[in-house]
Structures are given as structure tokens and as C-alpha cells.
């Protein structure tokens, strides 16, 4: 072999070794497990395949009054509607960390103002409220408007649609963690997307929602029902599902 050929072969060999070594290093950072489970996304308004459907428009079989009696709200045209003074309703099943999808609609005819217009609420674990309110051209205290963490966090923007139109909340809720003795170690956190717009970005919840006074934590179960509020207004809900996280 000529000197030139030997040199060329050596160079090619070196390149090949270097490339292989590079590839090996790439593989070092490839992680093979866990393989994420397959979830079929919902088409249109359908829930994803691993969702727990809480209301599909037909009945209130997954819901009850706070005292355990059957829920009294009405169901028609694929929606449930508050019947004022029949009280809040809650899921029969308890939940901790969840992704929630819920659609709501404030009544079309504008009646009342401020907190008295299309008021309801989504209470995670029966305690932590993301406000439902007709906040379309309806001033109130901002930490009490639609998509606020009631009396705690003002939404980043007001993404409300006009009353009478369906609106969506997509919410990621992380339950609080407590020490044995009852002290909170990890406060609850929540991210809220209202009509496709981020309005709460992983905010820390300060404690139980309170109308008057400051929120505090009281140790509770790991999983508790999701609650919807009867605030006396004819707010409707539809297409409610959760994914446990
Ligand atoms: Mg409310």
C-alpha cells in the first residue's frame, strides 16, 4: 500500500470511530422508560380516551347535593342548570390532582351587576374556588371576577365571552400536601385557561376560599369531591370531564 492510501484509510477510520463514539454518547442521554401510555384525544368537544366523564349532557348521576341527596339542578339540551336555592352540588367521586374541562354559560338576559350576575363557581376538593361570573363588561373587585381564584388571585386578563355564550375552563389543579400533624407542606396550585387564554399561571392557593377573612389551610383527605356553586343565578354547565394526574 502506498503511504497516501494508508493515511487516507487511517483518517477514514478515525472519522468512523469518532462518529460511533458520538452516537454512543447520544444514546447515553436517550431515556427508554417509562413509555407514555397512549391517549386518544377527543375530536371536537369529545373528551380524551382516559378522561372520567362527570357530565355528558344526559343526567346528574355522578352528582349529589352536599347532604348526599339527589342533585336538584335541571338537565336539558345537553346542559345542567342551577336551580336557585337547591344548593351546591358535588361529584360522588373524590379527586386530588386533576386536569378539568368544564364549559359554562351565564344567562343571556343581563340581570343584576357585579357579583350578582352569572355567579357560580368551581370548587376543587369542595374548598378552593375558581370563580364563575359573567365578567363581560361587568366590573367587580378583580380578585372576584371570572377565572379569579376567589379573593386570592386576579386573572391575568379578562377572557370572558358575552352572557348567553358557552365558555370553557381548562384547569390543572394540584392538591395541597399536608404533614401528619396537619401543617401544609405543599400548598395547592392551579393553572387556568379560559376560552383558550391562560389566565392563572400555576399560582399558589393560600388556603380554603373564604368570602370574609383570610384563607387558611385545614388538613383534609387526599381526594375530595368537585363542587359547583348555587349562587342564585341560572348558570349552566356542560361537557365536564377530568383526568386524574
Ligand atoms: Mg362564585
Explain how this protein is built:
It is a single chain. The chain is mainly β and 245 residues long. The chain has a single domain (52-244), classed as Jelly Rolls, CATH 2.60.120. It is 11% helix and 32% strand. The chain contains one helix and 15 strands. It has one helix at 3-28; strands at residues 52-55, 63-65, 74-76, 79-81, 89-95, 98-105, 120-124, 128-132, 167-174, 177-178, 184-186, 189-194, 197-204, 224-228, 236-244. Strands 1, 3, 4, 6, 9, 12, 13 and 15 form an eight-stranded antiparallel sheet that branches. It has a five-stranded antiparallel sheet with strand order 2-5-14-7-8, with no helix packed on it. A two-stranded antiparallel ribbon has the order 10-11. The model has no long low-confidence stretch (mean pLDDT 94). Bound molecules: magnesium ion.
Brief summary:
This protein has one helix at residues 3-28; strands at 52-55, 63-65, 74-76, 79-81, 89-95, 98-105, 120-124, 128-132, 167-174, 177-178, 184-186, 189-194, 197-204, 224-228, 236-244. With 245 residues, the protein is mainly β. The protein is elongated and about 100 Å long.
